[in-house]
Design goal:
Length: 211
């Protein structure tokens, strides 16, 4: 079993290397910083992190264009800059470029009645694929905690920088699964079934390790 796991790991690494070469040969990342933040109107601490990060990059690298990936259809450069100032007191040196995402539903909890965290993790990779095919920056900033998209960004030739304000999975979440506690990301029907619980507990622990 261990040999098979090792073989799969080696083959996966070789496939990733080949895919990365293919993507880099077909696409050259733009000299820019892209901020992956699908929800730019949540008003919480994560959004403040986004605007502080954009401001910091603008100050450190004045000639580096900044783009924000967002699923908010009404987001516009000037409106986002005004929101950063009005809501958080962060004055951007210039409005960011906006890259609109149409597939944000794939990271929303409501899309996955069961196995929510698995679905959201895979959905984040799909959403990041949309983002990076629309605009591939040299520097990929994640300010929302979608860590499963980082390998994809590397395959696109980006340098990945992240600040995880709200982790996708935490030790508290894993403990809730083990103790059969029902919550928005741990369905009560599944939490009450021991066999399913064992599978999910293993999956949660494995995902936490990968994360």
């Amino acid at each position: 079993m261990a040999i098979l796991v090792g073989l799969v790991a080696v083959l996966s690494a070789l496939f990733a290397a080949a895919l990365r070469r293919l993507l880099i040969s077909c696409r050259h990342p733009a000299y820019a910083a892209g901020f992956f933040h699908p929800y730019t109107n949540d008003g919480g601490g994560g959004e403040r992190v986004l605007w502080c990060a954009v401001r910091a990059v603008q100050e450190l690298c004045p000639d580096l264009p900044c783009a924000v990936y967002t699923g908010d259809a009404d987001a516009a450069p000037e409106a986002l800059a005004a929101r950063a100032l009005d809501r958080f007191g962060v004055r951007l040196l210039r409005p960011p470029q906006v890259v609109h995402l149409n597939k944000r539903k794939w990271i929303e909890a409501s899309t996955y009645p069961h196995f929510t965290m698995i679905g959201q993790s895979l959905g984040s990779v799909y959403l990041a694929w949309e983002a990076l095919t629309k605009f591939t920056p040299q520097f990929y900033f994640d300010t929302s905690g979608y860590a499963f998209a980082y390998p994809l960004a590397r395959l696109f030739g980006c340098k990945v920088i992240c600040y995880t304000h709200y982790p996708t999975i935490s030790s508290d979440m894993v403990e809730r699964v083990k103790h059969r506690s029902s919550m928005y990301n741990n369905n009560s029907l599944i939490a009450g079934r021991y066999a399913l619980l064992r599978v999910i507990s293993f999956n949660s622990s494995y995902r936490a390790l990968v994360y």
